[in-house]
Design goal:
- The complex is a heterodimer.
- By secondary structure, chain A is α/β, with parallel strands linked by helices.
- Helices cover 45% and strands 16% of the residues of chain A.
- Chain A is built from eight helices and six strands; from the N terminus they run αααααββαβαββαβ.
- In chain A, strands 1, 2, 3, 4, 5 and 6 form a six-stranded mixed β-sheet that branches.
- The N terminus of chain A is likely disordered.
- Chain B is α/β, with parallel strands linked by helices.
- Chain B has a domain of 63 residues.
- Chain B has a 21-stranded mixed β-sheet, with helices on one face. Chain B has a two-stranded parallel ribbon with strand order 5-7.
- The longest helix of chain B has 13 residues.
- Chain B is globular.
- The chains are: A alpha/beta, B alpha/beta.
- At the A-B interface, helix 2, helix 3, helix 4 and helix 5 of A face loops of B.
- Chain A: Keywords: Auxin signaling pathway, Nucleus, Repressor, Transcription, Transcription regulation.
- Chain A: Aux/IAA proteins are short-lived transcriptional factors that function as repressors of early auxin response genes at low auxin concentrations.
- Chain A: Homodimers and heterodimers.
- Chain A: It comes from Brachypodium distachyon (Purple false brome).
- Chain A: Belongs to the Aux/IAA family.
C-alpha cells in the first residue's frame, strides 16, 4: 500500500532500472494493485467480477501474448541478480551479496550475521530496544541519491530498487 | 432486363466489389437471386450462429471461399467460458455434403477438431487455403492430415491458435510432390519441428512468399532457409533469443542480404539485442514490423532498429519502447499507418513507460496514421484533443488505460472531452475502444458524432442507462457493441430493441441487466437469440439484486435466421 501511494505522487520516484522494478512488482502488485488509489474507486463502485477473473480478462490482451509475456517475465526473473557490496566498518575488504536470493530483511540480517560473524540489527529492531540483545553493529545502505540510510524503513521490494551499497556501522558511532 | 442472357448478368455481377452489394442485387427479383447465388464464389459469415450451415451451402453450392467467425470478440480476453460453442464441424460437414468445390476456408474463434480437419483434407480435391485464427480444439495430427492430403495446398496460416502438440511429424507429412506452397505460418505451434523436413519443404516451394516459423527453429536453419527464398516477402523469425556464435550471426546477415523482397518481419520471441544489428540492412525496405514478443529489447535497442525503418507502415511493439522511443518512430516513420503498443507489464496499477506524450509525438510526426491500439497508464484530455486535431484520419482508435476508471492525469477530470474530440474530428472512425474515467457525456458525444462507427468497446465506463441509450440512438452504422463492467441495465437494453436486428451482436458482461429484462427483449424480438450466460460461482450468488431480480452475469444477443442453437452448454440459457 505504501509503495503505491508514494509512487502515485511522483513518477520521478520510480527507479531508473525498469526491468528490475517490473519483475519486483510482479510479486508486489497482486495483493495491492486493486486496493490502492482513489482512481480505482470508480472501478470498485461498478459491479465487477471476482478479483481472480478480473486479472485474467484485464488488460484486454490476447491469451497468446499474455502467456508469452508471463513466461518471459518469469524467465528473466530467474536470470537476474542484484549483487551489492557489503562493508563492515573497520574492515578494509568488503563482501558481495546477491540480494535477489533473499526474501526479506530477516534473511538479509541472518545472511550478514553469518558472513561477518557478529550480531547486527536494523531500524525496526533497533527501535524496539530488545532487552538482552545488544548488537554492536547496525545496518545502513547507500541509496541512488548517494544518501546513507537506515535499513528497514521501507518495504523490501522498494529497498531492492534503491540500494547501491550496504554498510555495517558500529552502534556507538550513530 | 428480362431477355438479358444469364451469362451477361452474371458477368456484370462479377464486378460487384463485396458481399454486401451481391446481397442487395439478390433482392431485386427471383431471376437475379438465382443468377447471383449460383455465381457467388466468396461467402462471409460473421456469426456462425446467425444462419444454419446447410442453408448457406444450399444457397451457394458453387462457393470457393468460405469465412466463418465463431465466438464473440471478448472471448479473446477470457470472458467467454470454455465449451460455450462455436463449433466448426457442422460447417465443414455441410460443405462436404453440398459444396465439394470448396478451395479456401477461413475460421476465427472457432472450435475445430482433428476429425473435421481430416474430413476437410480428404473431401475437397481442389482445397488450397486454410486460415485459422484464434481457434482451438485441434492438434498437430489434424495438421498432418491437411499436409498429407491437400495436394494443391497453397496456404496454411495458423494465427494464435491453441494447438495441442503431438510431435514434429506433421511437417514431414507434406509429400515430395507438394511444391505449391505460397504461405506457411506455424508460429503458434508450441513444439519442435524437424529442421531437415522444413528445409526440404522450403527448397521445393519456389512460390513461397510468406513464412512464419515458431520459436523452436534454430537460427542456422533460418539462415539456410533464407538463402533458398530470395522472393520471400513476409518472415516470422524462429529462435533469436540465445547468444549465438559469431558465425551464426554472420550467416544470418548474409541470408538477409539475399532477401531483397522482404517487406514484413515478425517473431522475435524473446529476441536478444545482439541479433538486431544483423537485421539492420533489411530495415530500410520493411513496411511491417512486429516486435511485440520481445520484452528483452529495451528502448534504445528498439529505437536503433526502428530509426532504420523509414518505409514502415505497420508497427507492433511493446511499451518498453517508451515515450522517447515513440518520438524516434515519429521522426523516422513518416509512412506509418498502423501502430500497436502493447503492455509489457500487465498488472493494473503498474508502471508503463509510455504515456500520452508518446502518442502526441506520434500524432505530430505520422500524419498518415489511421489505426491505433495503445496501452498506457495515463492519458489527458489535452493530449487527446491534440491527437484528434493532428490525425483526423483515424478509422480505428483503441485506447486502453491500464487502470480502470483512471481520470485525466493532469486535471483529474473524466476523459469525456478527449474522446469527444476524437469522434468529432475523425469523421471516418469505424472502430473505437474507450477507457479511463468516463461519464455518460462521452456516450452523448459518440452518439452525436460517430456516425460511421461500426464497432464500439466499452469497459468500466458511464454513469447510467442514458449512456448506452445515446449510443443506441445515435450510431446508425453500429454493428458490434461490447460492454463490460458498466452500469447499464434493463432500461438501456430495451430502449431501442429494433436496432439489434440491424447489428451483428451485443455483448454485456458484469452490467446491471436482469433476467427479466432479457426475457422482455427475447419476447419482443423473436429473430434474436438472447443468450444468458451464468457461470455457477459461489461469489455470484452473493451479488446484490436489482429490484429483487438476479443480475445476468453475461449477455450475448445476436440476430439469427437459425433459431435457438442446440449445441449450447448447460450454463447458457437461450431465451
Amino acid at each position: 500500500m505504501l509503495v503505491m501511494a508514494e509512487c502515485k505522487a511522483s513518477a520521478a520516484c520510480w527507479p531508473t532500472r525498469p526491468d528490475l522494478s517490473t519483475d519486483l512488482r510482479l510479486g508486489l502488485s497482486l495483493s495491492t494493485s486493486l486496493s490502492s488509489s482513489s482512481s480505482l474507486q470508480a472501478a470498485e463502485s461498478i459491479p465487477s467480477m471476482p478479483r481472480n477473473q478480473v486479472l485474467l480478462s484485464w488488460p484486454p490482451i490476447k491469451p497468446f501474448l499474455r502467456s508469452a509475456l508471463a513466461a518471459s517475465a518469469s524467465r528473466r526473473r530467474r536470470q537476474q541478480t542484484l549483487f551489492v557490496k557489503v562493508y563492515m566498518e573497520g574492515l578494509p575488504i568488503g563482501r558481495k551479496l546477491d540480494l535477489l536470493l533473499l526474501d526479506g530483511y530477516d534473511s538479509l540480517l541472518v545472511k550478514l550475521c553469518n558472513m561477518f560473524k557478529t550480531p547486527i540489527t536494523y531500524a525496526d529492531v533497533y527501535q524496539q530496544q530488545v532487552p538482552g540483545v545488544k548488537a554492536a553493529h547496525f545496518l545502513t545502505y547507500e541509496d541512488q541519491d548517494g544518501d546513507w540510510m537506515m535499513v528497514g524503513d521501507v518495504p523490501w521490494n522498494l529497498f531492492l530498487t534503491s540500494v547501491k551499497k550496504i554498510r555495517i556501522t558500529r552502534t556507538d558511532k550513530c | 432486363m428480362t431477355y438479358f442472357p444469364e451469362e451477361v448478368v452474371e458477368h456484370i455481377f462479377s464486378f460487384l466489389p463485396g458481399q454486401h452489394d451481391r446481397n442487395t442485387v439478390s433482392l431485386v427479383c427471383k431471376v437475379w437471386y438465382e443468377i447471383e447465388r449460383l455465381s457467388r464464389r466468396t461467402v462471409f459469415v460473421g456469426n456462425c450462429y446467425a444462419v444454419r450451415p446447410e442453408r448457406v451451402v444450399l444457397r451457394f453450392p458453387n462457393m470457393r471461399a468460405l469465412t466463418v467467425k465463431g465466438k464473440p470478440h471478448f472471448a479473446d480476453f477470457n470472458l467467454v467460458p470454455p465449451d460455450w460453442g462455436g463449433y466448426a464441424a457442422p460447417w465443414i460437414e455441410a460443405a462436404a455434403r453440398g459444396c465439394v468445390g470448396l478451395e479456401e476456408l477461413r475460421m476465427k474463434r472457432m472450435v475445430v477438431t482433428d476429425e473435421s480437419l481430416e474430413l476437410l483434407a480428404k473431401t475437397f480435391p481442389r482445397f488450397r487455403a486454410l486460415i485459422l485464427i484464434s481457434c482451438e480444439g485441434f492438434s498437430t495430427d489434424g495438421l498432418a492430415a491437411i499436409a498429407s492430403h491437400c495436394k494443391l495446398l497453397r496456404e496454411l496460416d495458423l494465427q494464435e491458435n491453441e494447438v495441442e502438440d503431438r510431435g514434429p511429424r506433421w511437417l514431414s507429412c507434406f509429400p515430395d510432390s507438394c511444391t505449391s506452397l505460397v504461405s506457411l505460418n506455424f508460429a503458434c505451434i508450441k513444439g519442435e519441428v524437424n529442421a531437415g523436413s522444413l528445409e526440404r519443404l522450403v527448397a521445393r516451394s519456389p512460390n513461397l512468399r510468406s513464412l512464419r516459423l515458431n520459436r523452436s527453429v534454430p537460427v542456422d536453419t533460418l539462415s539456410k532457409i533464407l538463402m533458398r527464398t530470395p522472393n520471400l516477402e513476409d518472415l516470422g523469425t524462429g529462435n533469436l533469443a540465445d547468444d549465438f556464435q559469431t558465425e551464426s550471426y554472420i550467416r544470418l546477415a548474409l541470408a538477409f542480404d539475399k532477401c531483397k523482397m522482404l517487406r514484413s518481419l515478425s517473431g522475435f520471441w524473446d529476441a536478444s539485442p545482439f541479433c538486431l544489428p544483423f537485421i539492420y540492412p533489411v530495415c530500410a525496405q520493411l513496411t511491417g514490423l512486429n516486435l511485440s514478443y520481445a520484452p528483452t529489447l529495451d528502448s534504445s535497442d528498439l529505437t536503433k532498429m526502428i530509426s532504420h525503418c523509414v518505409k514502415l507502415q505497420r508497427l507492433w511493439v511493446l511499451d518498453c519502447i517508451a515515450d522517447k522511443g515513440l518520438q524516434v518512430v515519429a521522426s523516422s516513420c513518416k509512412d506509418l499507418q498502423e501502430l500497436r503498443v502493447f503492455p509489457s507489464d500487465f498488472y493494473i496499477a503498474g508502471y508503463s513507460p509510455v504515456t500520452e506524450e508518446g502518442l502526441v509525438a506520434i500524432s505530430l510526426g505520422c500524419q498518415k496514421l489511421s489505426s491505433l491500439l495503445y496501452f498506457c497508464h495515463q492519458m489527458t484530455n489535452a493530449a487527446l484533443i491534440t491527437i484528434a486535431k493532428n490525425c483526423p484520419n483515424f478509422t480505428r482508435f483503441r485506447l486502453c488505460i491500464l487502470e480502470p476508471g483512471k481520470p485525466d492525469a493532469m486535471t483529474n477530470q473524466p476523459l469525456d472531452e478527449g474522446f469527444g474530440a476524437i469522434v468529432r474530428e475523425c469523421k471516418g472512425l469505424r472502430r473505437l475502444s474507450i477507457s479511463g474515467l468516463l461519464t455518460d457525456k462521452v456516450f452523448m458525444y459518440i452518439g452525436t458524432y460517430a456516425k460511421e462507427l461500426e464497432m464500439l468497446s466499452i469497459a468500466f465506463a458511464g454513469d447510467s442507462d442514458a449512456g448506452m441509450m445515446h449510443v443506441m440512438k445515435g450510431c446508425k452504422n453500429l454493428r458490434k457493441l461490447e460492454i463490460r463492467d458498466s452500469p447499464f441495465g434493463d432500461a438501456a437494453l430495451l430502449e431501442n430493441v429494433a436496432k439489434y436486428e440491424t447489428m451483428r451482436s451485443l455483448w454485456m458482461s458484469s452490467c446491471n441487466v436482469t433476467e427479466k429484462g432479457c426475457q422482455v427483449l427475447a419476447s419482443k424480438m423473436p429473430m434474436l437469440n438472447v443468450e444468458v450466460i451464468n457461470e455457477l460461482d459461489e461469489n455470484n450468488e452473493m451479488d446484490e439484486n436489482h429490484g429483487g431480480l438476479p443480475k445476468v452475469d453475461k449477455l450475448y444477443v445476436y440476430r439469427t435466421t437459425a433459431g435457438g442453437r442446440d449445441d449450447a452448454p448447460n450454463f447458457v440459457k437461450i431465451l
